[in-house]
Backbone:
């Protein structure tokens, strides 16, 4: 079974003395549960593993009972160390209060019970951590799979990665497009929406958020007014609602509405969003275009490539500590603008769909970015880009 690079990071931390909770967070189907199973397979001490997904009406009481059960096993078996793993922790209402109480109790008693929490709802996890567990945890972020991982595990080429994206669970079905598409929609997208998005807040119009996701995925890599979106969805007058739903989709690692880069924060929030999926597969399932047809159509393939570049940038943003924007001034544009504190990186994607525009040059003259980069024709080739560590964009090393 393929091991992601995060395996060693988690395994090493569990070898350290008990100082902090380990919290693993990431979108659905990126391998959080599999990773922990692999780590527990080499863990040298007893462990308990539970998931809140399997328990009807899961509660704080259930969590406290699982914790107490682990303590009892340690006492009865005279264990010097034990591991407790709780998956989908965000499903438990006020989970962080219980975790704080139980963790602090073990700390006071000198009990060497190590704890790993897993969750797929970034907002709920971070909210609980900052509210109750400040100073008690370390966060490990698992992003969508990269080209390097998909190539090493499944032999994907960069063109296949652009089309099929980075969902490892869907790989057995890539030779059958209909089956692959149904798996992605039924087993990946729908659970992410119904179990994560709807869990974040009370959604008044569930069907509307599904329609927004489908439309946004179709237009991934393109700017589209939310007023026009509302009109297409026959829900005129609910632009504010759509904007809120777009935030929920972003927090679930599905779809973002990138803001236009500006020095003025207010202008960023007033800009027309540029839709961007977090995994290239999320655009493909709504494209109604086969892999073979996409490859021989420069215009279609250009759309796929630009969206895949954006998906890679967005999915790695939290891990690499930057924010993603776009920039446009009349007919001049820059596809992606990355901002890490005082450093700005401007990226232009040049594919067979269009020729180079003067946007990158104008942007450089106006904002003096730390780095400008062309990805594609006459620039950094796509395969190299998809395999690179994006933190290099903000380093002093030369990129060729």
Residues:
């Amino acid at each position: 079974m393929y091991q992601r690079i995060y395996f060693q990071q988690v395994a090493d931390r569990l070898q350290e003395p008990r100082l902090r909770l380990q919290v693993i967070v990431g979108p659905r189907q990126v391998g959080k549960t599999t990773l922990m199973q692999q780590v527990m397979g080499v863990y040298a001490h007893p462990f308990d593993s539970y998931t809140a997904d399997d328990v009807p009406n899961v509660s704080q009481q259930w969590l406290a009972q699982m914790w107490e059960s682990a303590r009892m096993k340690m006492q009865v078996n005279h264990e010097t160390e034990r591991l407790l793993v709780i998956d989908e922790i965000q499903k438990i209402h006020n989970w962080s209060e219980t975790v704080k109480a139980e963790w602090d109790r073990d700390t006071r008693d000198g009990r060497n019970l190590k704890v790993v929490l897993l969750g797929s709802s970034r907002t709920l996890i971070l909210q609980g951590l900052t509210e109750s567990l400040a100073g008690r945890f370390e966060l490990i972020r698992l992003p969508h799979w990269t080209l390097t991982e998909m190539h090493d595990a499944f032999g994907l080429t960069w063109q296949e990665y652009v089309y099929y994206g980075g969902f490892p669970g869907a790989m057995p079905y890539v030779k059958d497009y209909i089956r692959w598409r149904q798996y992605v929609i039924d087993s990946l997208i729908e659970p992410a929406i119904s179990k994560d998005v709807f869990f974040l807040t009370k959604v008044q119009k569930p069907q509307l958020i599904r329609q927004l996701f489908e439309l946004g995925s179709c237009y991934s890599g393109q700017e589209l007014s939310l007023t026009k979106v509302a009109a297409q969805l026959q829900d005129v007058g609910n632009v504010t609602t759509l904007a809120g739903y777009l935030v929920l989709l972003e927090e679930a690692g599905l779809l973002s509405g990138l803001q236009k880069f500006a020095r003025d924060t207010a202008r960023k929030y007033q800009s027309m969003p540029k839709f961007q999926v977090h995994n290239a597969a999320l655009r493909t399932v709504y494209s109604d275009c086969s892999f073979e047809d996409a490859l021989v159509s420069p215009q279609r393939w250009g759309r796929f490539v630009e969206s895949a570049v954006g998906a890679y940038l967005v999915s790695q943003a939290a891990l690499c500590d930057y924010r993603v924007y776009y920039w446009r001034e009349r007919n001049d544009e820059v596809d992606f603008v990355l901002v890490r504190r005082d450093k700005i990186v401007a990226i232009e994607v040049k594919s067979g769909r269009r020729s180079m525009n003067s946007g990158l040059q104008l942007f450089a003259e106006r904002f003096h970015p730390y780095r400008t980069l062309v990805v594609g024709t006459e620039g950094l080739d796509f395969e190299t880009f998809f395999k690179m560590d994006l933190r290099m964009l903000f380093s002093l090393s030369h990129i060729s």
